[in-house]
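Incident log, support desk, overnight shift.

02:14 A customer reports that sequence design results differ from what the structure should imply. Their input is reproduced verbatim below. On-call engineer (initials T.W.) acknowledged and began investigating.
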């Protein structure tokens, strides 16, 4: 049998389309495996609709749903409701942006939504939504940049990219512990290991440009970052690289390309073409 699948969101917008051929006796489980392979949506997050009927509880072969030679199905990620809630909360932030306490509370909730959505590979299925996430992060993440919860989140994304972690077969383990002595801007100790190897230890430090007019911070002084690189280059300090607060590297700051970490060329281009952000984290190599 031929099955045509339309990937949609809750507004009915079509994001992708594909057609597959299955055996007449193929079950819902066989279909789900194909959909996971194509759209990277795990079966537990798949909503498969035939007309108005959701067929995830279908027993027996798919041919039970009709007698056609070609079946047209609609696929939706089950976490679209969370994405819709995220967008509603952004609207609330915009409407109440003068109430800083309310904004910070809602920003925290939005980031928690995004963390869950990224973990569930939601944006693999809906890459068009990534720009909305990045725009939100660039505009509002500075409200929580200095909090350890979000430093850890950004670090996980950074090290996953740096160590080539695979979504399908994750083999990078990342653990955190507090510094023994914390300075004015604090920081964390991060232990990263790949494939069970001895962990490499890093020190993560925040660089925040504090504003005298608001309770949050403004642009980072990049001269401080150049000092870190200078000390490294003259071999009086440990190796140091930097990453920004965004979950995607599109929000990184500009540094000369020769100072960039050993990341893929596509990522380097993003690093070298974007403006400086509100907050930067430095990663100091210890071991």
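02:41 Re-run completed on a clean worker. Output:
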């Amino acid at each position: 049998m031929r099955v045509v699948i339309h990937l949609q969101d809750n507004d009915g917008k079509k994001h992708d389309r594909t057609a597959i051929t299955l055996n007449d006796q193929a079950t819902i489980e066989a279909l789900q495996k194909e959909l996971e392979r194509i759209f990277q949506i795990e079966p537990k997050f798949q909503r498969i609709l035939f007309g108005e009927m959701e067929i995830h509880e279908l027993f027996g072969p798919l041919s039970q749903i009709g007698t056609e030679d070609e079946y047209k199905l609609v696929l939706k990620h089950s976490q679209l409701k969370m994405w819709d809630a995220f967008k509603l909360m952004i609207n609330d932030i915009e409407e109440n942006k003068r109430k800083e306490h309310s904004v910070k509370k809602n920003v925290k909730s939005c980031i928690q939504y995004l963390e869950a959505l990224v973990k569930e590979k939601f944006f693999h299925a809906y890459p068009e939504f990534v720009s909305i996430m990045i725009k939100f992060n660039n505009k509002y993440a500075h409200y929580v940049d200095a909090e350890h919860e979000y430093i850890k989140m950004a670090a996980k994304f950074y090290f996953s990219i740096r160590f080539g972690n695979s979504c399908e077969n994750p083999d990078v383990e990342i653990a955190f512990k507090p510094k023994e002595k914390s300075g004015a801007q604090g920081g964390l100790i991060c232990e990263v290991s790949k494939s069970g190897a001895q962990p490499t230890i890093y020190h993560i430090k925040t660089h925040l440009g504090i504003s005298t007019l608001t309770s949050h911070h403004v642009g980072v002084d990049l001269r401080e970052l150049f000092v870190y690189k200078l000390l490294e280059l003259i071999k009086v300090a440990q190796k140091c690289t930097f990453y920004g607060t965004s979950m995607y590297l599109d929000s990184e700051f500009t540094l000369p390309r020769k100072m960039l970490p050993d990341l893929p060329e596509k990522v380097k281009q993003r690093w070298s073409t974007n403006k400086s952000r509100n907050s930067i984290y430095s990663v100091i190599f210890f071991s």
